[in-house]
Amino acid sequence: MPKSQREKKISERDAESVFQAEMEFAKRARAIASQTAISKKDLQQEYETLIEQYEKLLQQTAKITRISDSTQLKLRRTQEALNALNAELARALSIAEAEQRRAEEASRFKTELLAIAAHDLKNPLQSIIGFASLIQESAKSPVDMQRYATTIQNAAQRMFKLINELLNTTAIDAGKLTLNRFPCSLDELASVVLAANLQQANQKQQRIDFHAEPNCIAEVDAERIREVFDNLVSNAIKYSPIGKTIWIRIFRATSSDGDALPVIRFTVRDEGQGLTEDDMKKLFGRFQRLSAKPTGGESSTGLGLSIAKQLVELHNGKLWAESEGKDRGTTFIVELPILPKKTSESE
Q1: Which tens digit of pLDDT belongs to each residue from 87-101?
Q2: pTM reported for the whole predicted model
Q3: For 175, phi and psi rounded to 5 degrees?
Q4: How far is residue 214's CA from residue 191's CA, in Å, rounded to a whole number?
């Protein structure tokens, strides 16, 4: 028989014994009290007998109390163990549910990636195939060949950009994106990005007003930050109407967090379609379709801004947007920690 059950039976038996002893004790006391005449000797003897019975009663009561305390302690420990087990089970269920949600999200993400890859790679591939055939079959002059080759190049660049975005997204999600940081002149990097996007702006008769402070030095992965700058500049061109102006600035400033730390700020402001309140809520989400539409038939994966924000934050920086509303333009701002002056001068 388990110890707890034995203690329970002993406790029940002793409790019954104590009850009987109490009854006998009370009965004997009443009998003594009812006697009208009793000698001092007899009274002394009865008193000693009562004391002896009372001491036994106390001993039995104490024994029951010890057994009861032991049982209560075991019950309390058992309850605490059950509570801990329930808490652990709840945590395990919560983790399992979170893992299931992540798996479902990953599955949806994979499906969306495949759909985008299939859809957005199809058109430039058709262009490459079609214009390559024209060069082979019907190009009659160097001018025709130049025009067809430019179309092929543009289509290939669209494919390359899409593939790069997909690779960046999967690398960031997997935690496998490695940053190769070196001191870099961000003003020079911004100039390179501007030069790469001038043709696109000229095709839409847009004016770019560019000003950069010299020696804006930060320790960054230059290729990744170039991707960020390029995304913001090309988006401004893509979503701005024909003939509008785009302002690009890069300069040293104080952190917008209010901690007075020096930063380098890169801003791109346009006269485009602006952002609604709903746009602002989902601006940096994946595969988000905003109210603004490309003004020259350009394509968009809905991944660029999400990747840009993640890349900036991997550099301990910030990326956000400001807009006064629909059709009132948008400003995108990047802040990156500035390289301390002594360090930058020694490089």
Answers
A1: 887 787 788 787 777
A2: 0.58
A3: 70, 25
A4: 11
